[in-house]
Amino acid sequence: MWTTPGRILLIGLMLAGLVLACAFATSTTIHARQQALTTVLDHTEPLAFAAGQLYTTLSVADAAAATAFIAGSEPVDLRQRYEQAITDAAVAVTAASSGLTDEPMVKVLGHINAELTVYTGLVETARTNNRAGNPVGSSYLSEASWLMQTQILPDAQRLYENTSARVNSETSGSSQVPAPVILVVAATLMFGFFSNRWLARHTRRRVNIGFVAGGMAVLIMTVWIGATLIISTADTRHARNAAASLQTVTSMAITAQQARADETLSLIRRGDESVRKQSYYRRIDGLQQQLADYTRRPDAIGTKDLEGADQLIRRWRAADDRINAYISTGNYQSATQVALGTSEDDSTPAFDKLDEALSQAIAESRKQLRSDILNGRQALSGATVGAAALSFAAALAVALGLWPRLSEYR
Description:
The structure is a single chain. By secondary structure, the protein is mainly α. It has one domain (4-407). Helices cover 85% and strands 0% of the residues. It has helices at residues 4-71, 76-97, 103-131, 136-173, 179-203, 209-265, 273-296, 309-328, 332-340, 347-379, 383-407. The longest helix is centred in the first third of the chain and has 68 residues, at 4-71. It is elongated and about 110 Å long. The two termini are 15 Å apart. The mean pLDDT is 83.
């Protein structure tokens, strides 16, 4: 083995082993990233979206139930909105339950499902008493809203934050620098370079065509895989930004729904209006700050849908100031008219338009998120086969380059 032919053979075997290690490292890395992105696309992201839908629709149901209650005659559209929100929440519970594997979160979801049954029962009791003209109906509705705000929604928030964190974690894992691949490829190229120099000194030939061809194959593979990983990493980083946008806009939509519930409940619970008013203003101030911070971000998604959102919030707040002014004088009928009216200065048109704008921004953010994840996965397509083919070609070129040198020894 320590003769010159033996060393040439040893160099060939080591180069072939390094080239095969390159193929294994690149193929394993690419396959792992493809699997991770497929998991996010088919499992983790839909689960997080179902949790977000559950969180949002529960807030919609609470706001719709309170708004329908103060209307007295219970408009058909408000009743349908409440029933649709409860149906959507039940669908979201089913979708989330089919994908959850974390035991604590499974228990949280079970608690939400159980408490939601209690909530709908309280709402129906409040509705029945309201139609019969019994004042106790407001107590039942207040109890239902308290259950929603203090028990159900916090659990839904925990579930949404947990699943969203999984999306971020798994997406981030697909954008890390593949250090093992870089080290193996660098070691292969360096060993091939020094092996060629050693061979040139001992065989009096400056260039070995096989080594050059093998090196070019490895270099092409490196450039191809590197470009593929760079493109995929860029897409997955964009996906993380889209996920952050989706979380922010979803949070704004939920805050708006909760503020609407506070506004309408202040007309139901006559006696704690100041508490509801403080809660409303706290939520509205937070919503305005979130909106301002979000629209200033250069990577914000759906900003066109939110162009007039700040003005809508101002109009809504001005309408609520009128509601509070009427309540302070005991004119609950006029306050209710402002809360449910359809003129541009009333609460309902401003809230409905704001809710529609936020819903469109949510849809746009999710569309961008899934598109970025899909693009990141597609960028890796064919790279595994290409890396294996080029590695085999490099190993074959090295063998063909060394064979004439070995055949010179007898």
